[in-house]
Amino acid sequence: MLEVHHIHKNYEGRPLLNDISFKLEDGETICLLGASGSGKSTLLRIISGLETPDSGYVSFDGVDLTTIPPHLRDFGLVFQDYALFPHLNVYDNVAFGLKMRRLPPVEINQRVVNALETVNLVGFEKRRVTELSGGEQQRVALARALATRPRLLMFDEPLGALDRSLREDLLHEIRMILHHTSIPAIYVTHDQEEAFAIADRVLILHDGHIVCEGTPMDVWSNPGSVFVAGFLGIGNILEGKVFRELAGESWEIRTAAGDFNVHCKHKHQKGDDVHILLRPFPAEAEPNAIQGNVIDVIFQQDHFKVTLENGNYVYMQKPVRMGEKIKLPVKVECLA
Description:
This protein has helices at 40-48, 90-100, 105-118, 134-147, 164-181, 192-198, 216-221, 226-232; strands at 2-11, 14-24, 29-33, 55-60, 63-64, 75-79, 152-156, 185-189, 201-206, 209-214, 236-246, 250-255, 258-263, 273-282, 289-300, 303-308, 313-316, 325-334. It is an alpha+beta fold.
């Protein structure tokens, strides 16, 4: 089990990582999700040993890794830019780390063959990596990482250089490989779709802190803050004021888009400034509604995104006319 203990790291005199701690269980895949500059790649480099924290440490199975150099940690790394050797063919790229460990040639060959089979590159052994597509090069990089039989795999924006269709295909393959091998993994990305598709658990980084943690479903269902809801694009975020307390831990919130009755366990007082989240999906049983005149309608695969004149939006199964006034019941949550 990997454990990250109270990591602190400053960059240009400012905190980049501030007291970061978490555990990675055997066979688990976690995703470090955050915007550019949130410190997620730096954290990955600290775990790998390529960078040193200002304070805190990383351990694996109870062993402090502070004095253990990167090449002795038995961690595999896959980068966005592939980091392949252009003068070597596919076979020799995959075999490179094994040769550095001075393994017997027979074992090296067997491991390379197995790794290439795992990433669907059988028959590519003699190809130059410069002749491969981006997706094929990333498969070579993954095979190289797998060939060393690492006790942890780390991915730093591995699909960032690929187009959408290639990203989806390779993401599916990576997920299947991780499930099949049960190798614990840390996956860094700024793309929430990637994070939700591959992770057992998501950690969202912002301003040097882990601001939200949980399964993809938990994070989506309970963002807990204005930043997380906005970053994930969960719905409409409105500023409002508490007007009065209602029965059953509910409050009447007044906003520029209307009044809403919100159930929450926060301790509010009349006049408090609050933020509320309006989920964009119609919910017939809800007492609150989103309404306004339609100014834009966009078809998005199996639904329509309908934008209203007040800037709010909803998703609908059927199209509506421009200028039409609509009113739809939606779920409303308090973000405090």
